[in-house]
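From the methods appendix. Each design record in this collection lists the tokenized structure first, followed by the designed amino acid sequence. Records were kept in a plain field format so they could be parsed without special tools. The example shown here is representative of the layout used throughout.

RECORD:
FOLD TOKENS (393 positions):
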């Protein structure tokens, strides 16, 4: 569950666990984390490597792609461990954080193995290491128990060098360079020239991200932007050709609106070209465009949105319900099987019997639509039990 223990970084103010510490506060060191169990009953089927969460991009659009419908998944992959420290010095506080969970991705997809989440330090205006991208707003993530969460929001923890300043207690501004990475889809060109299957991304300069955030008693509004140079080259081609680059970029506007003492409305809209790598799910950054006789590369346009409501019925019970969507404007030479639209909706009821413990059930629905119009959907029920801990308790 990504909502737990996310850090909000401001000039002179650091988030440690649930307490705020300032530069003149005492030395603090915390070991924290949780043991988390999920039982998922999937009524349809998704890519087995991603069965422990619901990502619309992993839903098949042809019957039988991953076998017959219906699957039971029991998982502890969301379990997490972290350490963080605040060290006051004559030159201001030094804050460090190292955190990982057990949800394997990449070559470890489907495995229970260590996955780095945060590894960074912050001193004064400067932050260096891996943490939430400036292009994202971690606070817009709703109180769901599904691990990956809504598809149509920006969500990426990225290695970066960041500078943060503020002009008032209610407004902050930050600028960063971040690790560049992009996906390339040669599409139908592979059928014309099989060597184009070796067309890969090329990143010669870092991504540049910026963020301004306005906080008020009713909540906050955040506007974030990104500019990227999306390069590509062909391994084994003459002088690595075809090769080149395209400019990508986008804007992410998000807000949390407080609805009473605890209830929160989470809203977000993101749009851009070549920003799929920063999205929580779906799409590609670069793709083949034009015609087979005159092909060209294009930064693929993408639109995402999220609308969720977290409601607390009492001190013991809460619910989160909402909808999210990712929509791609596919390039001309992408195949019919390319991802075009992802939809995600969920609702839950959680029970908090005592401190550091919650349990509850969540109903989820997801749908994928391909560029050629084929669709697939998935319904599932998830029951989760969560036991948290902290050395500060």
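DESIGN:
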């Amino acid at each position: 569950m990504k909502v737990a223990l996310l850090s909000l970084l401001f000039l002179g103010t650091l988030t440690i666990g649930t307490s705020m510490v300032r530069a003149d506060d005492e030395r603090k060191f915390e070991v924290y984390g949780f043991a988390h169990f999920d039982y998922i009953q999937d009524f349809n089927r998704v890519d087995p490597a991603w069965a422990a969460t619901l990502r619309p991009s992993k839903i098949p659009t042809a019957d039988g792609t991953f076998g017959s419908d219906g699957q039971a998944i029991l998982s502890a992959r969301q379990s997490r461990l972290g350490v963080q420290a605040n060290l006051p010095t004559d030159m201001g506080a030094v804050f460090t954080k190292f955190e990982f969970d057990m949800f394997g991705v990449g070559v470890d997809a489907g495995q229970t193995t260590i996955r780095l989440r945060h590894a960074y330090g912050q001193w004064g205006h400067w932050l260096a290491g891996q943490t939430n991208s400036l292009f994202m707003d971690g606070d817009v993530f709703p109180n769901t128990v599904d691990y990956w969460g809504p598809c149509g929001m920006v969500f990426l923890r990225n290695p970066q060098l960041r500078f943060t300043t503020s002009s008032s207690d209610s407004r902050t501004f930050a600028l960063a360079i971040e690790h560049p990475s992009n996906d390339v889809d040669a599409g139908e060109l592979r059928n014309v020239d099989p060597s184009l299957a070796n067309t890969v991304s090329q990143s010669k300069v870092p991504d540049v991200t910026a963020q301004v955030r306005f906080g008020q008693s009713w909540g906050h509004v955040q506007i974030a932007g990104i500019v990227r140079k999306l390069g590509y080259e062909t391994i084994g081609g003459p002088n690595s050709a075809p090769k080149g680059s395209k400019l990508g970029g986008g804007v992410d506007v998000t807000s949390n609106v407080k609805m009473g003492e605890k209830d929160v409305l989470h809203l977000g809209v993101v749009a851009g070209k070549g920003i799929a790598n920063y999205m929580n799910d779906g799409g590609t950054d670069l793709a083949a465009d034009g015609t087979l006789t005159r092909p060209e590369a294009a930064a693929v346009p993408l639109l995402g949105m999220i609308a969720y409501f977290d409601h607390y019925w009492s001190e013991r019970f809460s619910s989160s319900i909402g909808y999210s969507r990712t929509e791609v404007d596919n390039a001309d030479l992408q195949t019919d099987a390319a991802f075009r639209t992802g939809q995600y909706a969920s609702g839950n009821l959680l029970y908090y019997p005592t401190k550091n413990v919650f349990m509850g059930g969540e109903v989820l629905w997801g749908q994928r639509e391909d560029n050629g119009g084929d669709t697939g959907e998935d319904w599932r029920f998830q029951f989760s039990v969560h036991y948290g801990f902290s050395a500060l308790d």
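APPENDIX NOTE: The first strand starts at residue 13 and ends at 16.
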